[in-house]
Specification:
The chain has about 130 residues and is mainly α. Helices cover about 65% and strands about 0% of the residues.
Length: about 130
Protein backbone atom coordinates (compact mmCIF):
# COMPACT_ATOMS: atom_id res chain seq x y z
CA UNK A 1 0.00 0.00 0.00
CA UNK A 2 1.32 3.48 -0.76
CA UNK A 3 1.03 6.67 1.29
CA UNK A 4 -1.85 8.11 -0.73
CA UNK A 5 -3.93 4.92 -0.39
CA UNK A 6 -3.27 4.75 3.35
CA UNK A 7 -4.12 8.44 3.70
CA UNK A 8 -7.41 7.84 1.92
CA UNK A 9 -8.35 4.81 4.01
CA UNK A 10 -7.50 6.43 7.34
CA UNK A 11 -8.70 9.99 6.66
CA UNK A 12 -5.27 11.59 6.88
CA UNK A 13 -5.43 15.24 5.84
CA UNK A 14 -3.49 16.03 2.64
CA UNK A 15 -0.75 17.76 4.65
CA UNK A 16 0.52 14.32 5.72
CA UNK A 17 1.29 13.41 2.11
CA UNK A 18 2.45 16.90 1.09
CA UNK A 19 5.05 17.07 3.86
CA UNK A 20 6.18 13.46 3.70
CA UNK A 21 4.88 12.65 7.17
CA UNK A 22 3.62 9.30 5.93
CA UNK A 23 7.13 7.86 5.76
CA UNK A 24 7.81 4.48 4.20
CA UNK A 25 8.32 3.04 7.68
CA UNK A 26 5.02 4.40 8.96
CA UNK A 27 3.09 3.36 5.84
CA UNK A 28 4.48 -0.17 6.03
CA UNK A 29 3.66 -0.55 9.72
CA UNK A 30 0.15 0.89 9.51
CA UNK A 31 -0.64 -0.95 6.26
CA UNK A 32 0.33 -4.27 7.78
CA UNK A 33 -1.66 -3.57 10.92
CA UNK A 34 -4.68 -2.35 8.93
CA UNK A 35 -4.74 -5.46 6.74
CA UNK A 36 -4.35 -7.72 9.78
CA UNK A 37 -7.10 -6.02 11.78
CA UNK A 38 -9.56 -4.91 9.12
CA UNK A 39 -8.65 -6.29 5.72
CA UNK A 40 -7.43 -3.88 3.06
CA UNK A 41 -10.82 -2.37 2.23
CA UNK A 42 -11.23 0.10 5.10
CA UNK A 43 -10.75 0.71 8.78
CA UNK A 44 -13.40 -0.50 11.18
CA UNK A 45 -14.80 2.25 13.36
CA UNK A 46 -13.11 5.62 13.74
CA UNK A 47 -9.76 6.36 12.20
CA UNK A 48 -8.46 8.94 14.64
CA UNK A 49 -6.55 6.33 16.65
CA UNK A 50 -4.52 5.47 13.53
CA UNK A 51 -3.62 9.12 12.98
CA UNK A 52 -2.82 9.61 16.67
CA UNK A 53 -0.51 6.61 16.47
CA UNK A 54 1.22 8.29 13.54
CA UNK A 55 1.68 11.48 15.56
CA UNK A 56 3.19 9.44 18.40
CA UNK A 57 5.46 7.71 15.88
CA UNK A 58 6.92 11.13 15.02
CA UNK A 59 7.11 12.40 18.60
CA UNK A 60 9.29 9.41 19.52
CA UNK A 61 11.92 10.72 17.11
CA UNK A 62 14.33 13.63 17.23
CA UNK A 63 12.30 16.39 15.62
CA UNK A 64 13.59 19.52 14.00
CA UNK A 65 11.66 22.76 14.02
CA UNK A 66 10.41 22.20 10.46
CA UNK A 67 9.12 18.70 11.22
CA UNK A 68 7.40 19.98 14.35
CA UNK A 69 5.77 22.68 12.24
CA UNK A 70 4.51 20.04 9.82
CA UNK A 71 3.03 18.06 12.70
CA UNK A 72 1.32 21.20 13.95
CA UNK A 73 -0.15 21.75 10.48
CA UNK A 74 -1.33 18.13 10.44
CA UNK A 75 -3.01 18.56 13.83
CA UNK A 76 -4.73 21.77 12.73
CA UNK A 77 -6.03 20.02 9.60
CA UNK A 78 -7.17 16.86 11.39
CA UNK A 79 -10.90 16.07 11.21
CA UNK A 80 -11.06 14.96 14.86
CA UNK A 81 -10.73 18.00 17.15
CA UNK A 82 -10.48 16.12 20.48
CA UNK A 83 -7.56 14.02 19.22
CA UNK A 84 -5.98 17.02 17.53
CA UNK A 85 -6.23 18.95 20.81
CA UNK A 86 -4.04 16.32 22.44
CA UNK A 87 -1.51 16.73 19.64
CA UNK A 88 -1.53 20.52 20.06
CA UNK A 89 -0.50 19.93 23.67
CA UNK A 90 2.37 17.68 22.54
CA UNK A 91 3.53 20.30 20.05
CA UNK A 92 3.66 23.17 22.54
CA UNK A 93 5.42 20.99 25.12
CA UNK A 94 8.16 20.12 22.64
CA UNK A 95 11.51 21.90 23.21
CA UNK A 96 11.64 23.04 19.56
CA UNK A 97 8.24 24.71 19.68
CA UNK A 98 8.47 28.38 18.72
CA UNK A 99 6.32 31.28 19.82
CA UNK A 100 4.76 31.35 16.35
CA UNK A 101 3.82 27.66 16.69
CA UNK A 102 2.33 28.33 20.11
CA UNK A 103 0.25 31.16 18.68
CA UNK A 104 -0.97 28.94 15.80
CA UNK A 105 -1.91 26.19 18.28
CA UNK A 106 -3.71 28.72 20.47
CA UNK A 107 -5.66 30.10 17.51
CA UNK A 108 -6.72 26.59 16.57
CA UNK A 109 -7.72 25.67 20.12
CA UNK A 110 -9.68 28.91 20.46
CA UNK A 111 -11.73 28.18 17.33
CA UNK A 112 -13.96 25.58 19.04
CA UNK A 113 -14.36 24.00 22.47
CA UNK A 114 -14.16 20.57 20.78
CA UNK A 115 -10.36 20.67 21.11
CA UNK A 116 -10.75 20.29 24.88
CA UNK A 117 -7.86 22.64 25.49
CA UNK A 118 -7.54 26.39 25.69
CA UNK A 119 -5.11 29.08 24.68
CA UNK A 120 -4.29 29.55 28.36
CA UNK A 121 -3.61 25.84 28.93
CA UNK A 122 -1.33 25.78 25.89
CA UNK A 123 0.49 28.87 27.16
CA UNK A 124 1.14 27.19 30.51
CA UNK A 125 2.40 24.03 28.79
CA UNK A 126 4.67 26.08 26.55
CA UNK A 127 6.09 28.02 29.51
CA UNK A 128 6.74 24.90 31.59
CA UNK A 129 8.26 22.70 28.88
CA UNK A 130 11.63 21.04 29.30
CA UNK A 131 14.48 22.14 27.12
Amino acid sequence: MNAQRLASLLNYPLVWVEHGLLSAELVAAQSEQLVTECGAASAIGGTEHWRYGAFLHWFKRELGEQELGHLLAAAVADPDPPMAGNVLKLVVQHPRCTTAMLQAAQACASSTPEYYTSAQELEVSFASRAG
